[in-house]
Specification:
- By secondary structure, the chain is mostly helical.
- The chain has helices at residues 2-16, 18-31, 37-62, 67-70, 75-91, 109-118, 121-133, 136-163.
- Helix 2 packs parallel to helix 8 (136-163) and helix 3 (37-62) packs antiparallel against helix 8 (136-163).
- It starts with a helix and ends with a helix.
Length: 164
Amino acid sequence: MIGTIAAAIGLFAATNIDDIVVLTVLFLATTRGSLKGWQVVLGQYLGFIALVAISVIAALGLTIVPDEWVGFLGLIPLGIGLYGLVRYLRRRGEEDDDDDESSIKAGGLLGVAGITIANGADNISLYTPIFRTSAPSDVAIMIVVFLAIEYVLLVGAATHHSRN
């Protein structure tokens, strides 16, 4: 159990270090009145819970995929990336439009959750294979550790922000 907790702490740190920057920017937006602090905290937490849920569902889905085929699943994000590159290269010559439909704006609770999910591809890509290869009890422990650390991170960020 201690090993599982230590692994979860390391995994969380590796996948969520960038959240510090995102939270800083979002809390900065609260000083301008475009967001409330509680929206940042709750939106980040909801977004993180969604990332964990997606990873669990993906891991469960992978149990029906034969082990020799799992490696080929790496072609999916590669294909998505190539599609995005081709799309970008085609649009590059067009006029820039400030109202880009694909941009995510931090407009309240759901906007923050959306930013968290959009920023969480690394979470899903690491959590999914680990959840697939771990015992269900270990996965449950990891999720509890993730949620506890996320809570501490958010309380720390909110407390720091309220003092400044």
